[in-house]
Hints:
The chain is of the alpha/beta class.
Amino acid sequence: SRSRLQALDAAHHLHPFTDSQALHQKGTRIIEKGEGVYLWDADGNRILDGMAGLWCVNLGYGREELIRAAERQLRQLPYYNLFFQTTHPQATELAATLATLLPGDMQHLFFTGSGSECNDTVVRMVRHYWATQGRPERKVIISRHNAYHGSTLAGAALGGMKPMHAQGGLPLPDIVHIDQPYHFGEGQGRDEHEFGLERARQLERKILELGPERVAAFIGEPIQGAGGVIIPPASYWPEIKRICRQYDILLVVDEVICGFGRTGHWFASEYYDLQPDLLCMAKGITSGYMPLGAVAVGGRVAAGLIGGGEFFHGFTYSGHPVACAVALANIAVMQAENIVERVHTDTGPYLQRAWASLGEHPLVGETRGLGLVAALELVADRQSKRRFASGLGAGLVCREHSFDLGLVMRAVGDTMIISPPLVITRAEIDELVGKARQALDLTYQTLMN
Ligand code: PLP
């Protein structure tokens, strides 16, 4: 029963990214079942999952093709590793399939078990690469404030989340941060194009300050996800590309959220015309049904790694065969149902139009989005775009109202975020936006009375 599980949970379970005290006062929400874009909780309430779990359940819940692929693989070969010159068909097939979907000259894949492990792999890989080029002093990796690259030590160090760094020892040496291209939050009143250029040029300033001979790579999410769906001004990425080329700095793109159709492209690197040296993916690679990540490696780094002797790096669950089998089935369904195309031409624009209509709500200072990811900024005053006092927790109030109405939205501070399954229909989008509007109304009543 619900109360028994809540008591056991409070007694024994430490949750990720959760204030345990607040949790115990309220009791854990227990999710028991999923089907399509919907979840059911332990009280039988139906909830539209506007976040696709953690931005990952792209094909929605209960897909038979994925379930059957996992079951078949569990019977055939439930586990084997990729170490010491062995492979299994699923990892090899998946690497070859991904190579056909990736941008630029990315023809090689290194498998991991998660997004965080991808970013740990990136740190070791870029330093190893420069060592193979006789440049071991190229160690520094430049990232951005408010980026999210995972929770392992290297992932959290690359990330720019202040509360994570404040909990000790981070960032690690030779990992530094520049400002993010967050126009609404940090560029109010400034020309968007100029703001984008100025934020990108911080990379150049940082490289010159450190000395280009010390810098190994720049890493960024095409659209910062967990930082608040921060869509950079159009001027930003071209300038970052120019700077990386000019100073011979590797470009690493973290597509853990953006990859696999989220933006209406297989990878957002296509949308921004990036040709990264390394690209991280996870989450949507299996629609979240199995844990899996992969680092795609472009020609130049691949040549260095292949010629550079053994790379002493890997995980027991690198390219787990069941996860790879599910990823292959996931990609096959996406291709058979033209999911990426549908997001690009139909459900993406439809959602963005409907979502933009929330911009007229008195609590909303901005709406933004691309494909099937979107955000809105809660403000105390629409005209001046003045924000609520930070202690008020406006975002959390909105998130709780939304959940009670049967919609999962995420709050990052006072930024409300959605990232629904890519199979969402127009009718379900109408329901999502309708519930978001109701949640805003209730939030208005709670905060303004
Ligand atoms: N990178 C990005 C951009 C992410 O959004 C996330 C997770 O949200 C990660 C990395 C970490 O992935 P994981 O939680 O699978 O370790």
